[in-house]
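Project standup — Tuesday

K.O.: blocked on the structure for the chain from last sprint. Re-posting the sequence here as requested.
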Amino acid sequence: MFNGKKDTEGTRIQDLISELRNLAAQNPEEPQLRGHLSRGLFSALTHAPEDDRGERDRLVEELRDLAARHPEDDVVRSNLARALFNMLNVAHEAGETSGRDTALQELRSLATEHPQDETAQEHLAKALFNAMNYAKAAGELAERDALLEELRGVYEGSGGHASTRLRLAKALFNGISHAVEEGSADRARGLLAELRDLGSRHPDDGEVRARLSKGLATVLHQSCMSEDSGDATELLEELREMAGAYPDQLVLRESLAMGLSDTLQLMGQGADRNRLLDELRSLASNHPDAESIRARLASGIASELSMSVNNN
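H.V.: unblocked you, prediction finished:
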């Protein structure tokens, strides 16, 4: 019954695609019909079974052909970019490295040939970001770093467009986290400085600001692990200033809570430690629904309890 229903749905999709093909072919002077066909092909691609490689390849090939015959058509080109990004992810999930790399290279070419096409640039940036994660998972750190450099170029080439900027901000934050994991303090610092610069260039971008706050908290954690109290204090102050400047952005307070909790672990008993714990209490009181802040407060209280017991 289930397979029969899927077969019926598949047949209906093919019939509707054929109808769109006919409409576009019979009325070539109406570009909106061609646009609807490209959207239909992309829609069919996203619903095609992942194991039906032949059908997926046919749909992408038809989109390629449509884009090649109408290079001036932004809608068709945008749907081709979306399709290539989709194919890249499907190929990765299937373990098809060559298919994944081919889709990425084709996205590169599309974005290079159409530097003003925001959708092509956006999907190339997204593809590079994903490829960085794949390279990191495979232990290919030189490849990961090369992809980050390429992503920087896409961001600059797009004129700092919001979609490419977001991918760069995410990549820089991931890079900071990876550098901390890999014990590379200098790399973490360099990427944090770059993320700060990105934030200063786009002060109204809350997404970049969020990644910067997380990056600050991550490097602060590294400083605490290294018992560098001076550095931790400076980073904590930067987090305080950011959270104070944007009171409606909860993620900044979550990053501040992380920084307070980590710095608290570094401090011995005394007034400074008490002030940090009171600051955590205040944050938790002001944001009673923020589970992560509450967890940081609990950690701080447990640390204080442990220290008090050990000193008695």
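K.O.: great, moving the ticket to review. The CA atoms of residues 243 and 252 lie 5 Å apart. Residues 2-26 form the longest helix (25 residues).
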